[in-house]
Amino acid sequence: KLSYSEVEKGFSDVLKLDAVLDCKAVIKLAYQAAKKKGSKSGSGNDAYVEFREFRWLLMSVRQYFEYYQMFEKMDDSGDKVVELTEFKKVLPYLEQWGVQIKPDDLETTFKEIDNNGTGKIGFSEFVTWALEKGLDLAEDDDE
Predict the structure, then answer these.
(1) Is-contact 123 82, C-beta < 8 A?
(2) What is the three-class DSSP state of 1?
(3) What's the CA gap between 84 and 119, in Å, rounded?
(4) What's the maximum distance between 2 C-alpha atoms anywhere in the chain?
């Protein structure tokens, strides 16, 4: 069993990933995904990632790191949110990542992703949308 703090500490202290990027958002979302997957099995223990959930945690961390790279590419200002002006600039990247959006539909798509209506897309909102659309950062795929 691993608590969230143990998982976070492992990624930052053991794997030294904090030195590469700010990975707390990735780890948090991956941990939640593993717990959600595990709760379907009926364990009822939401305080820890169990052994059977650990593989899902690792797969989620890998996927969410990929989405983090995409998100950072969109976030020109570095303020950890994507505004409409930034989103409009990444249309070619979105196509490379596997989603076709017509230029006329960019604002509508932006509003769909911004599910809390702040006028900005946060990382967790982007991950939800990226998972729905099956985005893939092709440049990191094994050949």
Answers:
(1) no
(2) coil
(3) 7
(4) 49
In the numeric block, the tokens 């650990």 are attached to 54
Contact 76, 89 (CB under 8 A): yes
Listed in sequence order, the residues at least 6 apart from 131 whose beta carbon sits closer than 8 Å to its beta carbon are 63
Q: Mind listing the pLDDT tens digit for each residue in 61-98? A: 999 999 999 999 999 999 999 999 999 999 999 999 99
Q: What is the DSSP string of 51-114?
A: HHHHHHHHHHHHHHHHHHHHHHHH-TT-SSSEEHHHHHHTHHHHHHTT----GGGHHHHHHHH-
- Distances in whole angstroms, Cα of residue 80 to Cα of each of 7, 67, 86, 112, 124: 23, 13, 12, 18, 11
Query: What is the tens place of the pLDDT at every residue in 53-70?
Result: 899 999 999 999 999 999
Q: What distance, in Å, lies between the first and last C-alpha atoms of the chain?
A: 34
Assign 47 to helix, strand or coil.
Answer: coil
Global pTM value: 0.84
Structural contact between residues 127 and 64, judged by C-beta atoms closer than 8 angstroms = yes
